[in-house]
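Reviewers of the previous submission asked for a worked example of the structure-prediction workflow described in the proposal, so we include one complete record here. The input consisted solely of the amino acid sequence. No template or homolog information was supplied to the procedure at any stage.
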Amino acid sequence: MRRVSRLSQVAVAVASLALAASACGKTSSEASREDGGKEEGSGTSSSYKGKGIGLAYDIGGKGDQSFNDAAYAGYRKARAEFKLGGVDMEPGDGESSADKVQRLEQLAKQGYDPVIGVGFVYAPAVEAAAKKFPETTFGIIDDNTVKADNVADLVFHEEQGSYLAGVAAAKASKVKHVGFVGGVDIPLIHKFEAGFVQGVKSVDPGIEIEKRYLTEKPEEGGFSSPDKGQNAASGQLEAGADVIYHAAGLSGQGVIQEVGSQKKWAIGVDSDQYKQKALAKYKDHILGSAFKDVGGAVYDLTKSVVEGKPMKGEQRYDLESGRVGFADSNPRYTAMKDVVAAVEKARKDIISGEVKVRTAP
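From that input alone, the workflow returned the following structure tokens.
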């Protein structure tokens, strides 16, 4: 999904950014007031000198109902609470690493602080931009390889939430047959698979598990192709699975749509997908979501910068912090007392250390 670029009423202050952005991505909003933000950081701590938050989206862009939208929720919350300006930018189609570097450098040059890259694909760009703008705080989500005094690596124990999804799937399955759809065959998504499989097997080692990765590389559309997700889910349902968990970004919409249309159980990821408007037609068939609070991480980093004590280094969120978990918004799920009890026990066992969740299949 792509959002058409637009300039706000106060765009004069950032028009140059909009012109530069045309070469390296789409601008969604610039210091606008729709989120409660105000230009030039009005109303923030007196020590804060930045213009606001600069947010650069991952593959799939804003509107993916999952990973990027979770980041946007944190961006909106921080802007409203701290009365900040801000600009959030879409990735360009078929863009290069140089395009990402240019996007982040333009945000920093215009005075946005923090500047956040949503997704591991921004690692080289964050590293390059952070060196050029040492007074700006940069954040990167889902990567811990960038080491600099002005960079915060915002990472999660995705395997823990996925373990809970596995427990829920195993308990809810009526045929002892479930499925996992990963967007791209990379180590990050392997963590989701590993936790899910371990959670399923903790309930019943005999449960059959379908597994499918949509693409080998991110640029092949594994995180941005609902049709690929739909086809994968169709195959797993045909094979006999009656609960399917996806970790596939925008492609996961296709998984949920296919599973919901066949009145089976889908499990969402990153955001609480039961609450997503674009998936409202299928929400009764969304058992829950293995969320990671990407928005909370965006908010945390912004708060630290506004307060004059910028976060830096690896910041890893887990079940105990509440930034990872299993969203239980569906009343049909909460009515399954045995499933809820099993998931809650698993959560406590992970936090206590009784259960160690694997990070690789």
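The longest strand covers residues 177-184. We consider this example representative of the routine output the project will generate in years two and three.
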